[in-house]
Write a structure and sequence with these properties.
The protein is an alpha+beta fold and 182 residues long. It has five helices and seven strands; from the N terminus they run βααββαβαβαββ. It has a single domain, classed as Aminopeptidase (3-Layer(aba) Sandwich). α1 runs antiparallel to α2. InterPro entries: Acyl_CoA_acyltransferase, GNAT_dom.
Length: 182
């Protein structure tokens, strides 16, 4: 199998397509997080709950990369709605002007993952950029485990900047919050 990022076929999905792609997203998540699935926060059941919540938001979209019919990775996102709790978990609150949302300002990138054989091939960046292309929002935000320094550095190379730490749920780890203009 050729592991060049050029062989990856990218497919976009909208919320209406979730039933047809759900199993691909869940199976990829379970493979990527296999060593953490015993932690309730990272369990497949909790992932499926988060996925359902995220996909129920207006503007949800996903991009899956495929090679020879098999998913190599995916990303999905949706705009932050007015009154979102996204910024409420910040350990150092942001100024109101930076955290006020109208449903069109900020895209939240909830998941970006690539199966191990495809890491380091450029597939993640292609999936990421395809997901962001054509989006109407002004900026995109994501959370990254600060212990994954290489991943955080990768996002910085892609134009993200660190804006603080947050704990999005009481049982979640503390994540570095990053932001990039679109």
């Amino acid at each position: 199998m050729n592991k060049s990022h050029d062989t990856v076929r990218l497919t976009r999905y909208a919320a209406d397509d979730l039933p047809s792609v759900r199993q691909t997203l869940v199976a990829t998540y379970a493979e990527v997080y296999a060593d953490q699935l015993s932690n309730p926060f990272f369990s497949v059941e909790r992932f499926e709950e988060r996925l359902a919540g995220h996909a129920s938001r207006p503007g949800w979209g996903a991009v899956v990369g495929y090679v020879e019919g098999r998913a190599v990775g995916y990303a999905y996102a949706s705009p932050l709605p007015p009154g979102t709790r996204w910024w409420a978990g910040m350990l150092q609150p942001l100024p109101e002007a930076d955290s006020e949302e109208d449903g069109k300002r900020t895209l939240a990138l909830f998941e970006l993952m690539v199966r191990r054989p495809w890491r380091g091939t450029g597939a993640a960046q292609r999936i990421h950029e395809e997901l962001l292309s054509g989006r109407p929002e002004q900026r995109v935000t994501l959370l990254v485990d600060p212990a994954h320094a290489k991943v955080k550095a990768l996002y910085e190379r892609w134009g993200y900047r660190y804006i603080g730490d947050q704990r999005p749920f009481p049982d979640a780890p503390v994540y570095a919050t990053m932001l990039r203009a679109l």
